[in-house]
Amino acid sequence: MATATAPRTADDEAYQRTFDAAVAADERIEPRDWMPDAYRATLVRQIAQHAHSEIIGMQPEANWITRAPSLRRKAILMAKVQDEAGHGLYLYSAAETLGVGRDELLDKLHSGRQKYSSIFNYPTLTWADVGAIGWLVDGAAITNQVPLCRCSYGPYARAMVRVCKEESFHQRQGYELLLALSRGTPGQHAMAQDAVDRWWWPSLMMFGPPDDESAHSAQSTAWKIKRHSNDELRQRFVDICVPQAKSLGLTLPDPDLRWNEERGHHDFGPIDWTEFKEVIKGNGPCNEERITQRRRAHDEGAWVREAAAAHAAKHSGTAAAHTGGRTEKEVGQA
Amino acid sequence: MTATVPVTAALALGDDALVLSHRLGEWMGHAPVLEEEVALANIALDLLGQARVLLSMAGDEDELAYLREERAFSNLQLVEQPNGDFAHTIARQLYFSTYQHLLYAELAAGDGPFAALAAKAVKETAYHRDHAEQWTLRLGDGTDLSHQRMRTACTALWRFTGEMFQPVEGLGTDLGALRTGWLEAVGAVLRRAGLPVPEGAQSGAWTAGAGRQGLHTEPFGRMLAEMQHLHRSHPGASW
Ligand SMILES: [Fe+2]
Ligand SMILES: [Fe+2]
């Protein structure tokens, strides 16, 4: 388990006290503030994994952009996948405030030294999967991320506020897509049910291992990076989804799912953690495809990035003149 | 009002936007840098928005997009060309966005049936054009490799550019008159990027006006097969 590096000097001890007091008072830690090395490392790991999940998460849905069955749905889907790219940008920027550049993090993703959310290692087999991802996967992401809007690290918390707003659009759009299918032809309804059957359990796994097996939880909670336990969040998500599934006219694939009056929550069946561990280890249905596509896009784009860098270097003094008054960075991000 | 909609022109412009939007959508998840995932999607979304307005002027947008056969599409062959490498995509954008920007500026200045759409589209296409120009400069004046690739791409797509200036029935503007402005604008960007203006003909016997008449290139059929498959598999369903 990670613990804060032991303070070595009187100065460090004073800094540590200031840091502890700020966290205790629910104040935000900002990039220029002193922070324990382990706090910084934990944040980098978590923000990087989150950023990687956003950009890998583009793939399963982008898989359906060229086949979207109406122009309205196509526009919604393209805008959604674009949002996920934007989330990646905010999060890599948040990681940069901790002194780690995007290139370094991408390198770790491509070489398998950093992870992304395992949910994206499942395939999108039909159009309904786009709806199931929006409803369940974005829904689970929101449940996880809303508490992060109050995370102790300022830039991460602020990135999460923006991200959560957009994720809730995605969740509603996914729900609405499934509703249209569920109320559509028998073929469409069956497609929606099949997608929910396949995505339900992996979505529950998005909250991570059960509390008694969660490696990083205790310290992250003390640092107010994490505000609720995995199992608490998972329960909250189940309680939200059950009535929504009912309004959708779809069933959740769990025979043990029922309201428990005493607990005031839904009971649900046991999760197959063997599958979870296998997918994390790299043996999920699409681990290989996802990382290969990411690496290929990166490698095939190398000459483009090199050209942009070479051009910028040649014109570093006159960049404004060459970009009509916008800086290179603005043009790139436009 | 419906009787006065110039359907041929609405379809020509709408199909251009629809098809190029689709091609740009193919980049998603594959772009060379994260900022370009966002930028290419922006352009694709603008074009899809334009396509939806234009196709709706001519009929039901989904019927037109998903249920017409290849020969009934009247887009330019330029916009249906496969993405190729990033240089090909940028060359295609440079040629087409410059054309679209000049055209919409003209239509926005008039009071024809496309004026309202053009007023919005002229702002969008100004950004698309700027994006393409900046990348043409970066690639043309970047590394030896990028220069070579950009040059190859500009040359390869040149023969599809003549078709843009063929007359379109009911458009209410003289497309032929845009050619001079287009050549000047594209030529100026290429020169700034250190790239030669391609020398070949802007159209061959086969490509001259062919897309507008429903004659397309081989990759277009495969593109439509992918785009239309799901919609056609569920006749009458709504989504
Ligand atoms: Fe996201
Ligand atoms: Fe999302």
> How much helix is in the residues of chain A?
55-70%
Average of the residue pLDDT scores of chain B: 95
β content of chain A, as a range? under 5%
Name the ligand types: fe (ii) ion
- SS-based class of chain B: mainly alpha
| Quaternary class | heterodimer
The major sheet of chain B is characterized as: none
| CATH superfamily label of chain B | Ferritin, core subunit, four-helix bundle
Our count of domains of chain B comes out at: 1
- Topology as H/E string of chain B? HHHHHHHHH
Shape of chain B: globular
SS-based class of chain A: mainly alpha
The count of β-strands of chain A is 2
Low-pLDDT runs of chain B = none
Rg result of chain A = 22 Å
Can you characterise this structure?
The complex is a heterodimer of chains A (334) and B (239). By secondary structure, chain A is mostly helical. Chain A has one domain (16-303). Chain A has helices spanning 10-24, 37-56, 58-62, 71-96, 102-110, 128-145, 154-182, 186-205, 217-222, 230-248, 273-283, 287-300, 302-314, 319-322, 328-333, and strands spanning 258-260, 265-267. Chain A has a two-stranded antiparallel sheet with strand order 1-2. In chain A, helix 6 packs parallel to helix 8 (186-205). Chain A is globular and about 70 Å long. Chain B is mainly α. Chain B has one domain: Ferritin, core subunit, four-helix bundle (Ferritin), CATH 1.20.1260. Chain B is globular and about 55 Å long. The two termini of chain B are 29 Å apart. Chains A and B meet through helix 3, helix 4, helix 7, helix 12 and helix 13 of A and helix 1, helix 2, helix 3, helix 6 and helix 7 of B. Residues 54, 84, 87, 163, 167 of chain A line the site of one fe (ii) ion.
